[in-house]
Amino acid sequence: MPKGIYAAASAMYTERRSLDAIAQNLANASTVGYRRAEALRGSFAQTLADTHGRNGGIDGDGGAGIHQAGIWRDYSQGTSRETGRDLDVSLDGPGFFMVQADDGETLLTRAGHLTVDDQNRLVGQHGWPVLGQDGPIVLPENSLAIQIDERGRILSVVQGDAGLENEFIEQLRIVELAAGSQEDLRPRNGQFFSSNGVELEDSVNSRVHQGRLEDANLNAVTELVKMITIQRHYEAAQKALSQQSRTGEGFSEIIHRA
With a threshold of 0.90, does the pTM exceed it? Predict the structure, then answer.
């Protein structure tokens, strides 16, 4: 295949994947705890060199064009907003809450919009139980209110003999990843992540804020501007592919007549 056609086709594919990532970001712009996605790109020559080493004996320039080199997740902290709701919590710092999915897998999340299910368990999105130090957290039925301090300790306000009392229930399990290992997380949907065997540590650098939620860590206007730019790149590659195809047809016709 002529290099020009190969380069244009690979550019179209790469820009298409970039558009898909941006579309996912825009669809989740209001999703609590969502982490922004971005399609990475690289040259074929660079990828071959990285894969086989600088002494791998690559002929010529190693190929033409760019290609999609994976999806990168931005784990930087999003903006926190006040809700005033007792069961809304946000994290300040690098930590993650832990929940247990329906399939039994433990997942990490920054989404702190919590509710109580019919078993009095504290649950997050999808009804997945939020984990404390000893497993799922069950609230007492006689609880009048819930207080959560900055260390994640959950206190239930109950009616005691001498009036209202604070009763310790559990402490939220908040973990962080070893330095440099965030890229090894496997996303379920951009809001929940599998640790994928990554070493987890109890977070000492995170603080819990009750009555607040962390928004998606993206700017919708910025994503829209990027989408317009990438669409233009896609259209340019599409035109280049069409031109290369017409040129190839012209050469074939000349050779056929010769």
Answer: no
